[in-house]
Amino acid sequence: xGHRRGQDGFVLVADSxxxxxxxxxxxxxxxxxxxxxxxxxxxxxxxxxIAADADGxxxxxxxxxxxxxxxxxxxxxxxxxGSTGSGDGQFxxxxxxxxxxxxxxxxxxxxxxRVQVFARDGTSCEVGDRREPARASSMIRKPWxxxxxxxxxxxxxxxVSST
Length: 163
Known about the structure:
Blueprint: E1 3-5, E2 11-15, E3 20-24, E4 30-34, E5 47-52, E6 58-62, E7 67-71, E8 77-81, E9 94-99, E10 105-109, E11 114-118, E12 143-147, E13 156-159
Antiparallel strand pairs: 1-2, 2-3, 3-4, 5-6, 6-7, 7-8, 9-10, 10-11, 12-13
């Protein structure tokens, strides 16, 4: 279960068990529920991680449907990208997501053993001297969380050892 604090001070929680995002105010009161079980736009199979960009848009890594979905801070569905597979823009259980100050979206593509980087609209992007999509080295095993870097730093990646 992932969580983030939004710009408005609300806490967003990826509730994988009930296939939804819960939003709580500063006092812990439930404000809204975003999504429901399913595979359509705005629906989830297994939301695992949440990130927000500078505009307040919310990005959700859905490991169950192998995609990223984007919502307004009010919970209105905006767009989605990704599908099952190992090609560019495809995922095998994305477990982590982060957005940096420049708006690059980092996705921990767990069972493809890589981190992909996208523009806010879901198109693969080039970051530094990496090619599209930016991929982690072959040393990474099952990345499950990623922390957005600053403008010039590399992302921080949490992995699960294969041994």
